[in-house]
Amino acid sequence: MPEWAIGLLAVIVAIVSFLWGRVWTLSDKRMKKDQDLINRFRQVLPSDGNTITYLLKKHDFRNKFERELLAPIDTLAYFLEQPDSYFLNKGLENLRRGLIQELSNFQSNYSGI
């Protein structure tokens, strides 16, 4: 193989490697941003908190309950609607939008209680 072809091949491999690494770096940053957002959601509404473990899983909403238990849901709904609370992953972003809608429906159902 001629030297110029070897040199060209080396340059192509270097460029492809650089671009591949850049794609992975961008992907890693996107995944980190999405993971950070999920962690913030968990802080607002922990899965082991009273709102989830008692109120949403076990409670019959036809009976009385402490409205303070719903405060994390209100906080989460507000948090999800903020401009910086979006996912870069389209699938996760679609789930977030669906969750906003479901939380809105839930809030409108219990607002009269």
Number of strands: 0
N to C succession of SSEs? HHHH
Q: For the terminal residues, how far apart are their CA atoms?
A: 81 Å
Low-confidence stretches are none
Q: Let me know the largest β-sheet.
A: none
Structural class: mainly alpha
- When the domains are counted, the total is 1
Helix content: over 70%
How would you characterize the overall build of this protein?
There is one protein chain. This protein is an all-alpha fold and 113 residues long. The chain has one domain. Helices cover 71% and strands 0% of the residues. It contains four helices and no strands. Helix 3 crosses helix 4. The longest helix is centred in the first third of the chain and has 42 residues. It is elongated and about 85 Å long.
Summarize the structure.
Helices cover 71% and strands 0% of the residues. It has 4 helices and no strands.
What is the topological layout?
Blueprint: H1 3-44, H2 50-56, H3 71-80, H4 90-110
Helix pairs in contact: 3-4
Describe the structure using short key phrases:
single chain, 113 residues, mainly alpha, 4 helices, 0% strand, elongated
